[in-house]
Please model this.
Amino acid sequence: MTTAPFSEFDSSRYRLLTETGDVKDGAACVLYWMGRDQRVEDNYAMLAARGIAKEQGVPLRVLFPFYTSFNDMSVRQFTFMAKGLEEVERDLRSLNIPFEVKVAAVGEVGEAVVDAAKEHKAAAVVTDHMPLRIVREWEEKVGGELDGLDVPLFQVDAANVVPVWVASDKKEVGARTLRPKINKLYSRYLKEFDAVEKNTEKCDLGPLTNWEEVLGSLDAKKVDMDVNVPNTFVPGKTAAMAAFQDFCDEKLKKYADNRNDPNLDVQSGMAPWVRFGQVGFQRLALDVKKLGKYSDGVAAFIEEGVVRRELSDNFCFYNSNYDSLTGAAGWAQESLQLHSTDAREYTYTKEQFEKALTHDDLWNAAQIQLVNEGKMHGFLRMYWAKKILEWTTSPAQALEWGLYLNDKFSFDGSCPNGYVGVGWSVMGVHDMGWKERDVFGKIRFMNYNGCKRKFDIWDFVRKYPGAAENALKAGGETAVQKKAKGSKNKKQKTR
Ligand SMILES: Cc1cc2nc3c(=O)[nH]c(=O)nc-3n(C[C@H](O)[C@H](O)[C@H](O)COP(=O)(O)OP(=O)(O)OC[C@H]3O[C@@H](n4cnc5c(N)ncnc54)[C@H](O)[C@@H]3O)c2cc1C
Model:
């Protein structure tokens, strides 16, 4: 009997989710239940599972339970995920590691994992970590059933540089409280990865997955199948690393100063690949550090990808109400409640938001970008979500619709960053109270004039046909008209 999970592995990176901690003797494999971290290399969960298998003298198998719906994910993200997994399958086959996809309704993922553990006589099951409620329900189900079989379930945090349960033992107030904790531990965890060893045993790799069939099994009652799949992000690790190379060559030098300007587009664009674990952020952090240049850009990139991203995981891990107003801080809940009946100058329906039919050309342009390209510039995301708060009849509605639109259209949606990003904008997550005003209460306010001071709004709006026209139809003015009016007023004042 081995006490868990295998001797060379950093024990702080995993947790035991079963009572049973002993790897089962006389079994036929170790099963990696792949969830969030959909890659072979640079994946601590894969390495842990491979390590246990090696010590036990059994092969490693990988299972991906392909859930037929997930929150508000549309066919856009499912297609991205499936195509990324196609590359995972190829990589695993080159290592003689069997990969199995089991299609399962969202409520039956747990059963699919337990069935696979039984069928393949697993010595242990290893999974990665995603702090969302549905995934926790699956883990509870699997843990309970595996205990009955005397098979341990190990969970490895393979998504964060510093494992979420190590970085902090509580919900953090914000980046300023998590940052010093991460900084203290960061160099201990930011290490190069070992390569995944091949299975040396004879393994039946079975036929290749029929991905068309898998995608065809999506639950059309829950998954919007009408959303298109633009080619803005090519799925898979190879494409991700090519895009990252381009970022390092062309954009990183400007990242520290210009990442908040939507017209300059110097963000990395890595979020969809990171969201589906097609690349681990640790790989990106290691690679930018190796460049040995653009130190301000590197520091800013690591601040976003390590501190901010890991703060999102911290929030969802320690707060199961991450997607509800009850998950907000007391001051924010009170203030939003107090202002929930304030008169709104504009209100829109969900459909009007979705179709970018507001009076605001900038908001419409951002929404059109989201719908057409599956992404929205990071700075505009804040403005976009805050305006949903301003133009809906209640904060709860704003939170729901903001999350719905983000998760349906954004390639990187349905993840802790999305819940925290919308939560920050609508209910002050990780923020502080600001000057009280109508509708927003003490939630930080953003407006069109503030954007105007940061970048040329018309330069952005004109890239998205329909944005200005829709604004005019809804009784608004375009950025050009506002500018003309502004300079006329200025001239009159100076006369
Ligand atoms: C309303 C709203 C919704 C958001 N929804 C999502 C979402 O669904 N998925 C998502 O990954 N991010 C989300 N964010 C956070 C942030 O806007 C995006 O991560 C970022 O814009 C992605 O672009 P990029 O990969 O080019 O980022 P870069 O600026 O190149 O940053 C590198 C990586 O750091 C991480 N990161 C960057 N900014 C943040 C941040 N503020 N918080 C946490 N992590 C960050 C991401 O993993 C990103 O890929 C949201 C923010 C807001 C305000």
About this structure: The chain has three domains: 2-158, 159-192+236-318, 325-484. The beta strands are 2-3, 14-16, 22-23, 29-33, 60-67, 99-104, 122-127, 153-156. Residues 370 and 376 are 5 Å apart (CA to CA).
